[in-house]
Give the backbone structure.
Amino acid sequence: MTEPRIAIIGGGLSGLAVATHLRLLAGDSGRGANVTVLESSDRVGGVIHTERIVSESGEEFIVDHGADMFAMKPPAAIELCQRLGVADRLLRPNPEGRGAMIARGNGLIPIPEGFVLMRPTKIGSMLTTPLLSPAGKLRLLAERFVKPRDMSVHDESVGSFVRRRLGRECLDNIVAPLVAGIYTADVDRLSMAATMKPIWDMEASDGSLAKATMRRVRSGEDSTERGSSGARYEQFRAFPGGMIELIETLQNKIGREHIVTRTPVDRLRRRGDAFQLESAARPELANESFDRVVLTTPASVTAALVEDLQATLDDESQRDAAETLAKCLREIPYASTAIVVMAIPRELIARMPKTFGIVVPPREKRSILAASFASEKYAGRAPKDHVIVRSFVGGMLQPELLKKEDSAIVQIVAKELADLIGLQHPGDVEQRAAFVKVVRWNRSMPQYEVGHLERVAAIKSAIDKLPGVDIMTNAIGGVGISPVIGAAERTARRVYDGLGEVSKVPTEA
């Protein structure tokens, strides 16, 4: 019998990771599966992309357009790298500069040592930081006496949680910029249960974050956190040639002959026990049939395909499930962002921070959400006499900024970098830098707002009622490379186990 055919719609990290894990499962079990990845654009990888730029003077720069590293916790990404034989290529962050600073006026203040997202693991550093007033420090110390939430409360915004437990100053001056740097989100809409579940659960299990932290310090669980400021950089890894190396590794494992680009799927239909796909860019696709379909596209695109599928379903309960699924997917909001990348001569930065990046509190009323010094984090990104600065703008709080032309955004960012790090001649930055470019990611960051987990539960319940259809997208859960790869592995296992008796003949993967 022929191998069961699986169509994966979407060639971003989600789709490639699902396809890779399917290949690994097939190789482990000896039961084959014919996997085809269909991508609408002219390349795969989605927001993960790396560009090698050679300046007019012949200097080479490695520029990541999206994520430039991945976390080792959860371990899904590092474990996949190990299985694919590329873990020995991974780089550790440079030992100097592991930390971040917070903007205050035209200056920068280090994040207190041991403070990770919203949990201080070293009280001494919190008592000496200028980021909090004496009253703010007393409020932080009082956290252990704050009554835990009622256990009937199943979700709360990050802003509400931090104000309630740590105080308004800690939220405004420290937590809000750190969270905005990760999620480009509004902390008063972002779900605590969906984005910070380990900390959310600490309140329930220990009564306070201070008590939970004391328990973790005694057990040694917080050893890494106590030496970190903001991001736990020791737990991150990157590839020498940028994150595109991960995408290329996944492509090679899948088999590039199984990946089809420039093929947006316009229609999804059920025909008997199989699925039919239609694409105006590739009419011959309509002549093929697939036993299973995995949708890894953004929520709105997935919703449109599900709505199209609904019309071809005979079972009323399945049609209802498809309707619910599409509705829930369309309710997930997305944020847009832009990254202004500049390769600046080091001599033009008067106050180069000794950290990997800076974050900017919303209360500072600036356009920059955060800036990272990519060439400082990992060796080989730029010549030593240049610094690659990646500045992030837009997000949920400032979407109007992205309506401006690239040149206008560059000038805004340059002027703010002049304030924050002493960039010289900001008005001439495009002439003085080795290069300047603006990378736009429109509607690329799903927002896990309060109530998100209830919506996810409804989505998963609906999917369970649609045989042969699976959804794998970071709109449901998993911001970050490692969480996405972990979710992709679970999806691949569910898909592979669901192939059932489609093919009983063992074949090569």
Remarks:
- The first strand starts at residue 5 and ends at 9.
- The mean pLDDT is 91.
